[in-house]
Design brief:
Elements (H helix, E strand, L loop, with lengths): L3 E3 L2 E3 L4 H4 L7 E7 L4 E6 L9 E8 L9 H7 L13 E6 L2 E6 L2 H8 L9
Antiparallel strand pairs: 1-2, 3-4, 3-7, 4-5, 5-6
Helix pairs in contact: 2-3
């Protein structure tokens, strides 16, 4: 990640997702459900012990490339964003039957945010 130092203070650029103000205690995560698919967005990690949670500013990961697993996608993102399919995000989605929650790194968030919005006719 690029860093700038001014007068001895280190500054790091924020990703688009980080610019969205998280609610107290929220974390940006990749969430896999039993049948609804994979999403990323802001969740309350205190609720991850149940199989239900809401995801704010949720992006559905319809298809990804250049990552062997969701774990890798959540840690490093994708090297080929133009080959991935991520439709327009929704303000909030309520999910049930959550089977996996992976906190994402800044590198992965930046990568996911670089994926162009996919539409059926594009």
């Amino acid at each position: 990640m690029e860093k700038t130092i001014i007068n001895g203070i280190e500054y790091v650029p924020k990703t688009e997702t980080q610019l969205i103000e998280p609610k107290k205690g929220e974390q940006y995560c990749m969430v896999r459900t039993y049948s609804a698919g994979v999403f990323c967005g802001w969740i309350d990690p205190q609720k991850t012990k149940s199989q239900q949670n809401s995801v704010r500013k949720a992006k559905r990961i319809h298809k990804w490339e250049k990552a062997a697993s969701l774990s890798e996608l959540a840690m490093t993102g994708t090297a080929t964003p133009d080959e991935c399919r991520v439709p327009e995000p929704v303000d909030i989605i309520y999910l049930e039957r959550i089977i996996e929650v992976i906190p994402m790194t800044d590198k992965a968030i930046k990568s996911i945010n670089s994926i162009p919005v996919w539409k059926m006719n594009s």
